[in-house]
Amino acid sequence: MTDFDYDVIYIGSGHGANHGALKLVQQGQKIAFVEADKLGGTCTNYGCDAKLLLDGPFQVLEDVTNYQEAGLVGQPNLDWEQLMASKHAMIDGFPAVLDQIFAKAGINLYRGRGRLLDAHTVEVNNEKLTTKNIVLATGLRDSTLPVPGHEFIHTSKDFLDLPTLPESMIFIGAGVISMEFASMMVKAGVQVTVVEFGDRALTNVPASYASKIVAKLEDEGVHFHFNEAVSQVAEQDGHFTVSTQSGLTFEAAYVFGATGRVANVENLGLEELGIEAGPKGIVVDDHLRTAVPNIYASGDVVEKSIPKLTPTAAFESNYLAKVLSGDDQPLVYPAVPFTVYTLPRISTLGVSLDQAEADPETYNTKTAPYGQSFDTKRDLKAEVTLVYRKADQTVVGAVIYGNDAASLINILTFVVDKGLKTTDLEQMIFGFPDVTYNMLNKI
Ligand SMILES: Cc1cc2nc3c(=O)[nH]c(=O)nc-3n(C[C@H](O)[C@H](O)[C@H](O)COP(=O)(O)OP(=O)(O)OC[C@H]3O[C@@H](n4cnc5c(N)ncnc54)[C@H](O)[C@@H]3O)c2cc1C
Ligand SMILES: NC(=O)c1ccc[n+]([C@@H]2O[C@H](COP(=O)([O-])OP(=O)(O)OC[C@H]3O[C@@H](n4cnc5c(N)ncnc54)[C@H](O)[C@@H]3O)[C@@H](O)[C@H]2O)c1
């Protein structure tokens, strides 16, 4: 039998890699990470964690707004620089903590860009490492808009490090990232304009709920322009002009772009090994295996139809730990909750409304406002839509619009995943008063 340096080399050290790696090293497998940037990947350093830290005070401002003329007068002041400093104080220390965790676990770390030389050799900084198996967990990056002046467009990484607030911002794209950041910026008093190529925002939530958040942000002062393709960005004296193909121009002190994320598949040596990959990711089978049987992919870099999220990356990483320990079960995803962290949040789960409405023989839906209650902190427009399987009234999907949606959808994940019905919930006792009790009562 061939002697390899490692049992598994992971290229990338984000959630698509580290959950499974920590399991395998505990089982005695010899593991290495190859990481070109900060340990922990996007979520830890440039994504979810940083975003939620910055979003915290804006949630408070949202609650304060809801209580105006109902017990609170006036708004607290936002200090963005202080907020950014507190974000740095927490986030900047994560890679060092992970470094210690990985070292203590016995995982070797190679800092640099990894590349496959053959099915069992990874090259990093001219060093050749041999390995029995390889997991590609290289993630996504923000795409670059192919227009003149694209260098003036800031990315999500830049935004999450924004040292001072500009007085005006143009957001190119009305997808998840833009809508989350625009929600914060309008509350911070920044003049916000959103320019979107398509005819609606947030294509991954039902249109009726995307319209709700657009209307809410418009009420707060955001200007939306749909069906507009950005054709150029120009700078003059530190001010920026964004032009569209139809001839519109917008001016602002800061231009932000979030027009989709593309897979990090270049210069990995994939083509040479016959591994199929493109901007949507690496093509895998139902065991996350590429065309080369001992090379797998995990996390955002996998071409897949489910949302590209931290929990789905972690799920795949854990699944691969089983496969790499000899389990041969194919990958089956449970229901995936997905929350857009706008203010309020929009969460979706399971069978979508579009799917339910297209198949009325199989599904029925019920929409229930739950915000006009004593337990929702005056989140008056909060609403849940449930999707039921008609035959037995099992809850199979949901959409929640409200400040508590991210937590509530996790409760419904149990309901949907375990195939529960109203009659099952009637056999349980939930704490009261609480928004969870209120929402579960609508089922
Ligand atoms: C602004 C933003 C907000 C987000 N918010 C949420 C959220 O609220 N909830 C949620 O679930 N998800 C969110 N996400 C998505 C989440 O960050 C990703 O789903 C998650 O990070 C995927 O993990 P991963 O390990 O697959 O990839 P990544 O975390 O991207 O890790 C890939 C790693 O591979 C490294 N790498 C790439 N190429 C090479 C190479 N050749 N050699 C060595 N190393 C390499 C990279 O440096 C990186 O560290 C957000 C993303 C962004 C950008
Ligand atoms: N809450 C979360 O879980 C969360 C948060 C942030 C990011 N993410 C991750 O990031 C991804 C979202 O990234 P995103 O917001 O960049 O992509 P997206 O696909 O959600 O939105 C991109 C938007 O840009 C628009 N667009 C494209 N070209 C354009 C142009 N030339 N002019 C104007 N608009 C244009 C598209 O029509 C689309 O609406 C998610 O799929 C997920 O993987 C998740």
TrEMBL record:
Signal peptide: none annotated. Residues 6-314 form the FAD/NAD(P)-binding domain. NAD(+) binds at G173, A174, G175, V176, I177, S178, M179, E180, E196, G260. Disulfide bonds join C43-C48. Its cofactor is FAD. FAD binds at G114, D300. InterPro entries: FAD/NAD-bd_sf, FAD/NAD-binding_dom, FAD/NAD-linked_Rdtase_dimer_sf, Pyr_nuc-diS_OxRdtase, Pyr_nucl-diS_OxRdtase_dimer. This is Glutathione reductase. It comes from Fructobacillus ficulneus.
